Amino acid sequence: MALSDDNLKGVTLALLSSGFIGASFIIKKKGLRKAAAASGIRAGVGGFSYLLEPLWWVGMITMILGEVANFVAYAFAPAVLVTPLGALSIIVSAVLAHFILKERLHALGILGCVMCIAGSVIIVVHAPQEREITSVREIWNMATQPAFLLYVASVVVLVFVLIFRFAPCYGQSNVLIYTGICSLMGSLSVMSVKALGTSLKLTFEGMNQLVYPETWFFMLVVATCVLTQMNYLNKALDTFNTAIVSPIYYVMFTTFTILASVIMFKDWDGQSIGSVTSEICGFIVVLSGTILLHITKDYDKNPSRGGFTQISPSLTARLNGEMLKNVEDGEMSSNGEIIVNFKRPDSY
């Protein structure tokens, strides 16, 4: 697919953004672990000690750099083109988690990552061209159309239900709760980022958009949504495996964002049925890849299919030595049996 100059800039910035954001997941989780070890209170159960951990702030700055690049990308290219490229952050975070956090990425997980990328490529190839916008008020008219207002109302209701009804009961056991909150709010933040980025782009081109109150309203929405995303993304990262959080967050975030963009900017208007079908197929491929990643999450906790825990040879030797020592220290019963006082080794 031939890309225009603006679309090429947007794709390049989106790729850089994904690299920064993928790395930030790992850096922030390292910071969360250090903070939890120092304070004894994890972010997943309401702790905020990570705010005093320098490593977490390094990760946060890395994420901000990625988000800035992503912000600028939306000013040059449509959301349906920029957003799917976030799949690269899945690869970056999963690979780094494998080597740095020792969160093992299995063969199915690798296949899942490849499928996520393949699905994203399909979406990008068939993505529609962005419509030309000359004023922030054009975007405001799109944002206040009945269909998009209904979407916004639905998102707000779902987020409140997830936060106050499901998060207290299932947040620690179901990865979809925290990632769902992040993804829903993220879809609104992207629409506002698109509006704000376009406003700033037009302003730099000589058409001042800062005089319109709509620009400042979009800025307020961005700040509110990003703060909410940051809070619940921290909870998700602290509670679940990074290699699982990243792809699930990506799929949900991408799905809701493109749905919001289709409703607000009417991206699929004028596209052929074949192109729309191809984009949907791309989503199915990405979703399939995420499922493959998801089913590997318990492998490290339950390595054996039969339900027995595998023990390393070194640990087996230590246990055998301890058992022999206990047998030597045992007593003889009246019927000639050895009474063994087996004690758990001091450390494994």
* Main beta sheet: 2 strands, antiparallel
Contiguous runs where pLDDT drops below 50 for at least 5 residues: 303-320, 322-348
Can you tell me the overall shape?
globular
Number of helices: 12
Protein name: Probable magnesium transporter
Subcellular location: Cell membrane; Early endosome; Membrane
Membrane topology: Multi-pass membrane protein
Pfam families: Mg_trans_NIPA
Gist of the model:
This protein is an all-alpha fold and 348 residues long. The protein has twelve helices and two strands. The model is unreliable at 303-320 and 322-348 (pLDDT under 50).
Notes on the protein architecture:
There is one protein chain. By secondary structure, this protein is mostly helical. It contains twelve helices and two strands. It has helices at residues 5-39, 54-76, 79-82, 87-101, 107-125, 136-143, 146-170, 175-204, 213-239, 242-265, 273-294, 313-328; strands at 331-332, 338-339. Helix 5 runs antiparallel to helix 11, helix 7 (146-170) packs antiparallel against helix 8 (175-204) and helix 10 packs antiparallel against helix 11 (273-294). The radius of gyration is 25 Å and the shape is globular. The N and C termini lie far apart (57 Å). Belongs to the NIPA (TC 2.A.7) family. Acts as a Mg(2+) transporter. Can also transport other divalent cations such as Fe(2+), Sr(2+), Ba(2+), Mn(2+) and Co(2+) but to a much less extent than Mg(2+). It is found in: Cell membrane; Early endosome; Membrane. Keywords: Cell membrane, Endosome, Ion transport, Magnesium, Membrane, Transmembrane, Transmembrane helix, Transport.
